[in-house]
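Memo to structure team: turn this sequence into structure tokens by end of day. - J.P.
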Amino acid sequence: MNITRRSFLAAGAAMPLLGLTRPSLADEGTLRQVATDRKLIYGTAVSTGTLAKDKPFAQLVIDQANMLVAEGETKRKAIEPKQGRLNFAPTERLLAFAEKNGQRMRGHTLLWHEANPDWLLAKLEEGRDDKLLTDYIEKTVGHFKGRMHSWDVINEVIHIDEGGEEDLRISSPWYKAFGSGYIETAFQVAHAADPDALLFYNEINLEADVWWAEQRRTSVLKLLEKLLKKGIPVHALGIQSHLKAYRLDYTDEVMSRFLDEVSDLGLKILITEFDIADVEGPADPAQRDADIAALGRRYLDVAFSKPAVLGCLTWGISDRYSWLSSYDSYKWSDGSLSRGLPFDGDLRPKKLYFEMLNSYRSAS
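Reply from structure team:
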């Protein structure tokens, strides 16, 4: 059956869980408990600053997540603000928090066209210097060897509007300096630095049932096939999953087929940055919460029906600190918080939280 976003929402609205009465946290358990019981990941993106200044929020992260990813601490702009001076202290603080609380951690991201220090961009424009690519990966992955569950080695390399070879993002400073070969090199160097870490290619806008997302999915599959045929150590695909509840349609068939195609390549899959933008939705927050919970449940049900899927990380856990509320395309003009995460701005569980619990419970 073809299920569009509209029927996602209609079906979700009929679920008893989305009525006026909902279970308490004490009744339902935590995402951490349920995910761990199913040998799955539930994690969240956090920052050391937020954890340090907001103790109730930090406790929520401890209670709910079995994996953490840094919002910014493991990006190159943060680690190497000056050439050759690698600052691992913020990442070490976050890793110490995770280790103390029995949580794993993943690194995001070794190479991206954004979040690069100015000195690096200037150097890349001067001409090809392989050390600008390889030394950072060797030292960073090597420094955390054995302590990181996984790394997003490459982030967002597809851009179908740029007309590049195989839809690659030719405006990237990495592509301009090295051509497409930088992708292969990055994975090889990262694997040599930590052979036990899962290495991810992480990509955005792969989920919707629209022509441009289908082209992106096709391009991603072609890139993965090419890398694997060459023996490049790519282990998994990260699907960011920033869903847009009132702007795009999603169908279970489209996502199910794509997950199967990735799995058929022998790769693992992780939902890496899950949230659901509620902008342009109904004025009533309760109705938006119900719609988002229904969409989130259906989306994760499809994902968790696939053995290759390792779990899900939300990009944030509470609306109190959601990037959606500060990004022009998604924030509400009246200043109210976006409601795209499992907990609201007061750290109270929303309907999305309980539907995520149910989806984890029903995982194959």
